[in-house]
């Protein structure tokens, strides 16, 4: 006997589902569940802005209050995606302005955002609350001024590493005097100085301000004034942390920091003068997150700071920390979950610091909760990787960058296949992996076989033949994103595993051996993929079919071929063979 | 370098291959050979990876790291923020630091420090000692250690007499002196 819940009951139940996966599963049960679910989904995540169109999203989900969209492929971060490639926000905003007047949140990553888009956002959404622009570009501080002036209920403005054309610091002064709703402000990527008194007044009148990340232009002498007005701060980013050594500045800082009993996260620290680091010691016992990636400070000073932070969960630091500092970290910070070590001198021919694989091995041994690693270094060995794998089978993210491409195991001169093999074999929950060093096809056999939960894989200067790519594409059940540069992978593996690509978000291959002919074949055979050739040498038709393409970006989509392509991007589809160059 | 063809026979890829060409279309072996040939490939982008790499010999590595686009994988945003301090500093002003009685020397970058007090703090940390109070008359009072440096002329000088900038440009090497030797320096003998 069939019965059904009233719609209102189902809707109430569905409201408890926050994960997109769960909601997607629910919507597949039957038509009526699909209908109920689509009317009550409030938060949308679009992992690839070209996988779907604004019209399709709006048609399916009519009442959305929060949108998160990602644009360019990850390798755009390293200048591998040419300027003008795409990922424009404007079409999304113009469609949503009409259909989602109550939109509250927009979070973007690697999108091109114009001042026009920002102005449209500020005027179209009356209850707009959250704007997060992560690694975006295309806008100026004028766009920020529109947001500040018009978004009366703004809670969060986070510019996270975006490239902003900084015309002046005047934008901050556009927040009205009766504006008091700010909870989070991250302007650390901006260059210009904002009016300090405007900043002080803003901080004073926003009692819920929890996150304040200043830009480099705010000098350390001015920090106490801000901290005193916001003792409720949880996350704080300093500006340039340097001044001549004066006891009054120092004691003001100590006092101001001491007043912040809720601080958990610190960042900033450009141009650090080590003598001022102890000013923070009073708050260090509560600190869980420390971003010192701009702090050009030597190991002893870093160690002294870190030794005061027993509750540290996340540390981003330069390789000035050295192996000795990492050893100290592993003994003081037993709660550490995430470690990122960046290179202070990536282009130098010789190492400038004493940071080796040993530091990472020590941390892996001493920090039982370590799950996320990003590590730049100049030497690695299979023995070290095997040790790390055995020590930390709970690793979820492991990104290793050995600075010299194709560097072998420095002890044995062998490839690092067995080392990375151990990582994927022991770390069964691994979701993200970046490889480096000398690697043969064998490492891909290990990865394809063992990395069952792997979702994102980054490969550079590795492998011997198509076999490598074939192992990955025919294994790795959970693979969603694959990005490859400068590897001898070609047509065979790609064509043999075409169906796999529909189960993934995207594939990027640049400076590999994939021919134009193979791209065309793939495009013709797989209508639900966009197979895009990026080639700045001119139309691929003007070269032999066997000629490898410069770059290939393949992604599943329900939106059909892009309509906003620049002249160096070609979509391979049924018409590709007929199209004139 | 072994071509794709030899691997193919190992794995018998052909048997399981998804053939997308029309029946009767043959795969030209010439195609595979051409792929390995550099002249059809845009220069600079396709990294030469063949047998050199397998042997662990990296003689075909590019002239300098900075010339590979996007490697090491660092965001330009980050590079601008950290490297801009380095561009003026180049490789820094590293000088050796020796301490009497220590088994090995250390190296520090003088450019990191804003002045003498910071330098001393770093030295105190590094060698687990205390440096006394400086006075023009008596050198370093209040501890067994005195910091000295070797200048451009090879003379052993007491640290602290000249302005910091002048010190930075003339200091070639630091030496932390201990005990009676140290006190001798301060007395203008």
UniProtKB/TrEMBL annotation, chain A:
Question: Which residues span the membrane?
Answer: none
F-box domain residues: 5-46
SMART domains, A to Z: FBOX, LRR_CC
Please give the pathway this protein is involved in: Protein modification; protein ubiquitination
Q: Which residues form a coiled coil?
A: none
Where the protein is mainly located, per its record? nucleus
User: Where does the source fall among the domains of life?
Assistant: Eukaryota
Give GO MF terms, alphabetically.
auxin binding
Mind telling me what this protein is named? Answer: Protein TRANSPORT INHIBITOR RESPONSE 1
Automatic annotation (TrEMBL), chain B:
Tell me yes or no: is Nucleotide-binding among this UniProt entry's keywords. no
Q: Which organism is it from?
A: Abeliophyllum distichum
Quaternary structure note:
Homodimers and heterodimers.
* Coiled-coil region list: none
Q: What is the lineage of its organism?
A: Eukaryota, Viridiplantae, Streptophyta, Embryophyta, Tracheophyta
Keywords carried by this UniProt record: Auxin signaling pathway, Nucleus, Repressor, Transcription, Transcription regulation
Q: Offer one Pfam family short name for this entry.
A: AUX_IAA
Q: Where is this region: Disordered?
A: 1-48
Q: State the compartments where it is located.
A: Nucleus
Q: What is this protein called?
A: Auxin-responsive protein
Entries under InterPro entries matching the protein: AUX/IAA_dom (IPR033389), AUX_IAA (IPR003311), PB1-like (IPR053793)
UniProt biased composition (Basic and acidic residues): 1-11
**Gene Ontology cellular component?**
nucleus
PANTHER family the UniProt entry points to: AUXIN-RESPONSIVE PROTEIN IAA1, AUXIN-RESPONSIVE PROTEIN IAA17
Assigned protein family: Belongs to the Aux/IAA family.
